[in-house]
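Q: What changes when glutathione is included in the input?
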Amino acid sequence: MVALLLRGFEPDSGLTAIANKRSRDVEKRSSTDLKLYALGPSICSQRARLIIEEKGLSYDEHTVDFSRSENLEPWYLDINPRGVVPSITENGQSLFDSYTIMLYVNNQFIGPELTPDDDAAYEKMIDYMKRADHFPVRDFAFRFSLQDDQEMDDADMWRLFMHDNVVAAREKRPELKHIYDKKIEDYNSMEKTATSEEDMAALEADCNKVMDELDAALGKHKWIVGDDFSLADISWMPIFTRLSMMGIPVYGEDMRPNINRFILQWLERPTWASAVEGHYMDMVDQMERMKVQLGKNT
Ligand SMILES: N[C@@H](CCC(=O)N[C@@H](CS)C(=O)NCC(=O)O)C(=O)O
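A: The predicted holo structure follows.
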């Protein structure tokens, strides 16, 4: 029934073009029926939830149940043809990709302005957002999960589980093979990178370089591109914290102290509790179901 109701959304129907406009050139309005499709603490979901909440907008959230392959169902692929989170829908239109969602929500709606007016600062913000978007957190997560001496191997289980589910979906709906095949290819490439010493050393070097750059930027002003909070800050915070949670610390009192201060500033923002911390447990049931399916009952 839900599938029938949602069919007809037009993914990306011109909204990306609006997202890419400068905020000052877009007339602001209030939101009406904004809906977020997300998965708890996933980095990209955090970004989409954070922009909506930082703007002070009301919204409904639907937790996409990956453990039941909801992301692979036709109704969700109508909204997000990549079968990933996050996506937003409003008034019969949908938009995906956290980078685009952040720009769009900031541009469209009444609320605090989260992009700098100054052209040079704006370009810098876009550059930092794109680099955050391409940052290979997944590869670090899978690499970490492959180490023998750590217990939290959830990331690799997650990859295997997702892979199996896409294969099953492809058998069930061969007409969507073109979408499922791309996902299978993606999961396979992830495994290759995580098991290659060379690839991981290169990723680590890139990671250190960008972290040093961000620490230096934060040594000059309160937030990443200036003294005002911006979309660049929303883009990077989930990466800093996720790497730390995975045992790859990139900041601390004695290590990149400016990023450390940035995180302490973040903890003061009300959206930390509502859009980040409050969603850490959203995946517990899904992880349990995944372990049962993989025969790894705890
Ligand atoms: N560039 C996209 C990436 C979306 C993405 O990969 N989302 C992850 C969660 S952070 C996901 O849904 N992964 C599941 C999968 O790869 O099948 C964005 O920023 O929205």
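Observations recorded in class: The pocket of glutathione is lined by residues 42-44, 83-86, 97-99, 133, 162, 183 (CB under 6 Å).
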